[in-house]
């Protein structure tokens, strides 16, 4: 390719060397700091995964306990900074999350990964409680991060199986190569700016439906389809209308997103525990139909289920309202964003790409 040609989506452009995660789109493999996602998710706590991303090794013993305490303190300190009365005006949870996070400062200690990660969970939950007509719940530092996040989101002390479902989710989405929100965070960090600013930029990027905004619409789609027999007609009509099928397709993966299988497995475990929402069979049927219809329409461009497809059904089964799905995605991904900010500071340079001028020539 001509080296001066514009690559507007930066497809295939390598912008960083990273130790944090590798996305192998051809083979459908995700490795997080030397661990296949299938071995990490479901087996490792969110605290341990965050520690892995922030320090390069899976923490154990006192190191793990220290991360758990730091995250708990992050939640408590973030709650102290919350302006709960501002939340009701936000219709969108990502707007609320962005605004609440933007009030934090490095001077108040929020440059630290554990503080920021605690804050995003608290603010996601605070908005969800407000939207449900309640008041935000104060964090409980005695609980694990996943258990406390679920308690603050739902207002109830959660069932351990549901906590396990959310924990698997948070670990699964903690990091994923140079996705748009991570890139946004790294661009901001590359200027020497503070971590709060980087995370606020990342939240803005994650809000978009092409990135983190898809799981709510996936559940809307499953509701509209209602039963497997109606899937083909519904999907065909969407494609004929030129609309995208949410939860399908990916910039990097040319096979099914490995995270879809991890989340599908977590959902199956909830179903076995009698706690699922009965949507697993419908989701599987719709996925099959959508994959076939997309293959027929784009025979040269494999478009399979991405992480958002089963996120929608899993988070619903865990007890979350669909409006809280994207903020909850942020509550997991913030661990990766913070790790990338640290890595960018340690190894990166100012990110400053070029553009090609196509405007009018200056007047003589
Ligand atoms: N449904 C229908 N068509 C789709 C599609 C989908 N989910 N995903 C891609 N396509 C189509 C595109 O419209 C494009 O067709 P066109 O050339 O006729 O316009 C073609 O497939 C190639 O897609 P492209 O735009 O190159 O893909 P991308 O790499 O830019 O997009 C996504 C990747 C994720 C943004 C895209 O697959 C998508 O919009 N998916 C739905 C939203 C979603 O699930 N987002 C969460 C991502 S984790």
UniProtKB/TrEMBL annotation:
Pfam families on file: Citrate_synt
Keywords per UniProt: Acyltransferase, Transferase
Catalytic activity of the protein: oxaloacetate + acetyl-CoA + H2O = citrate + CoA + H(+)
Pathway per the UniProt entry: Carbohydrate metabolism; tricarboxylic acid cycle; isocitrate from oxaloacetate: step 1/2
Coiled coil regions, renumbered to chain: none
One MF annotation (Gene Ontology) recorded for this entry: citrate synthase activity
SUPFAM superfamilies: Citrate synthase
Keyword Transferase: yes
PANTHER family hit by this protein: CITRATE SYNTHASE, CITRATE SYNTHASE 2-RELATED
Family, similarity comment: Belongs to the citrate synthase family.
The protein, known as: Citrate synthase
């Amino acid at each position: 390719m001509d080296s001066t040609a514009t690559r507007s989506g930066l497809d295939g452009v390598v912008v960083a060397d990273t130790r944090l995660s590798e996305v192998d789109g051809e083979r459908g493999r995700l490795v997080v700091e030397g661990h296949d996602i299938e071995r990490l998710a479901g087996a490792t706590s969110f605290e341990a995964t965050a520690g892995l991303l922030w320090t390069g090794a899976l923490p154990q013993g006192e190191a793990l306990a220290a991360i758990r305490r730091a995250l708990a303190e992050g939640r408590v300190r973030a709650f102290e900074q919350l302006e709960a009365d501002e939340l009701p005006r936000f219709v969108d949870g990502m707007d609320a999350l962005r605004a609440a996070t933007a009030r934090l400062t490095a001077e108040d200690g929020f440059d630290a990964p554990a503080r920021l990660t605690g804050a995003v969970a608290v603010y996601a939950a605070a908005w969800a409680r407000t939207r449900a007509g309640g008041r935000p719940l104060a964090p409980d530092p005695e609980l694990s991060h996943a258990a406390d996040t679920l308690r603050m989101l739902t207002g109830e002390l959660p069932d351990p199986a549901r906590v396990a479902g959310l924990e698997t989710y948070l670990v699964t989405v903690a990091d994923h190569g140079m996705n748009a929100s991570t890139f946004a965070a790294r661009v901001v960090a590359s200027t020497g700016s503070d971590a709060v600013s980087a995370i606020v930029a990342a939240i803005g990027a994650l809000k978009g439906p092409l990135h983190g905004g898809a799981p709510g619409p996936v559940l809307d789609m499953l509701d509209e389809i209602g039963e497997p027999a109606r899937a083909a007609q519904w999907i065909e009509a969407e494609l004929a209308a030129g609309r995208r099928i949410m939860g399908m397709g990916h910039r990097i993966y040319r096979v099914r997103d490995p995270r879809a299988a991890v989340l599908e497995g977590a959902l199956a475990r909830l179903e076995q525990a009698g706690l699922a929402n009965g949507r697993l069979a419908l989701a599987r049927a719709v996925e099959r139909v959508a994959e076939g219809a997309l293959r027929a329409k784009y025979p040269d461009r494999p478009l399979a289920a991405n992480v958002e497809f089963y996120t929608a059904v899993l988070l619903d089964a865990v007890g979350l309202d669909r409006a809280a799905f994207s903020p909850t995605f942020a509550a997991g991904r913030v661990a990766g964003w913070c790790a990338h900010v640290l890595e960018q500071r340690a190894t990166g340079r100012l990110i400053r790409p070029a553009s090609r001028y196509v405007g009018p020539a200056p007047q003589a």
